[in-house]
Amino acid sequence: MQRERMIFPDERPVHTPWGVADYAREFAEGIVFYGTPSHGGFKLSAERLAQMHSALRDKDGWFEEDCAWAKVAFAFRECFNDEQQEAAIRTLKDWCPDEYEAVTGKTLAPGASHIKGQRLFHECHAQDWVVISAIRSDQHPGVVECIATLGGKRAEWGRSDPERRCYLVPDAEYDGRGKFGFVIDPDRHVLCDSPSSFLSGKAAQ
């Protein structure tokens, strides 16, 4: 059963990875959700943390509210309602497939997990030019200027920037791109060496 309590100014402030908490919701003993003006997440007691499967466990006991919360709800399903449990399973499959597979012993197909689908996409297109940024063209009406790199790689700290190329892609074609990215066809998509709309910063996508 969920028990909600508020943190008042005269109480000792609780410091979270996202700032000082302004409220707390206790789902069960040792399972507390803390919210801040910007973000939030669960904090587990040492006892609760020790009860989790090692694949789900985070050593500091904090689980942010976007994806990691699902590890808590999955590990302690008796503390969450049916809707929350279902959402936790969907979230784990999509965003934490390795952890889900380790706990359940089930193998997810790429189509059953966003992350696994994304991995497969990049594996299949490691040697293709994949768009990493795009903008409606001022110089070429009905066309999108696309910045692409091999495999869709982006700049990383401590590594040299990947080579970038600018291609022109028809609006309608680019609008039909898949959820993991748009792959350039060098035989059809024209390299752009004219002044770019990226310099003006207009109509960015």
From TrEMBL:
Residues 12-126 form the DUF7007 domain. The lineage of its organism: Bacteria, Pseudomonadati, Pseudomonadota, Alphaproteobacteria, Hyphomicrobiales. This is DUF7007 domain-containing protein. It holds the Pfam family DUF7007. InterPro entries: DUF7007.
